[in-house]
Amino acid sequence: MRIALSAGAAALLTLGTAAATATAAPAHDNDSVIWGTVVSGPDLKVRDEPSTHGSILTKMPYGSEDRVKCAVRGMSVHGNPHWYWLEGVRGWVSAEYVDTGGRHVPSCGSSSEDPCPQWRDRDHHQDCDPCGYRDH
Predict the structure, then answer these.
(1) Torsions phi, psi of 93, nearest 5?
(2) For residue 30, what pLDDT is reported?
């Protein structure tokens, strides 16, 4: 089944059951695209910044998928400070709740299309480095 979510731009997400997700890999035509599967339920909140304080743009149901563009260090969720930028829904989700099948997600700072330039010149939160611009 396919559903469409609206968050400024429509995104098609594939919805599957837990059993189907665990036993069958989704068919994707482009191996260079990193697909992330929501492993949190009932719904994963997609936010406008890599923090649980960010506004909720939309929600993604358990088992849905989207393209993972890049990762940043943001607010830690259950000890995991990484957040993913999802291309389809155009928002941030905690990496704690998204399975990329073990694929390495590049840093947003090295991405050709920076999804969060607004973070470059401000210190949002002492524990939050949303686009990886601070020296580590």
Answers:
(1) -135, 150
(2) 61
Residue reference for tokens 């260090």: 73
Token pair of 108 as six digits? 């947003």
Hey, is 65 helix, strand or coil? strand
Q: Could you tell me if 87 and 65 are in contact, meaning their C-beta atoms sit under 8 angstroms apart?
A: no
**pTM metric for this prediction:** 0.65
Contact 116, 72 (CB under 8 A): yes
Q: Which residues contact 130 (CB under 8 A, 6 or more apart)?
A: 49, 50, 51, 72, 73, 74, 83, 116, 119, 124
**Nearest residue to 52 via CA among 127, 105, 131, 109:** 127
Question: What pLDDT digit, counting tens, does each position of 13-63 carry?
Answer: 433 333 333 333 455 556 789 999 999 988 999 999 999 999 999 999 999
Backbone angles phi, psi at 119, to 5 degrees: -85, -15
CA distance 84 to 92: 6
Tokens standing for residue 72: 């940043």
Residues 6+ away with beta carbon under 8 Å from 67: 33, 34, 35, 36, 86, 87, 88
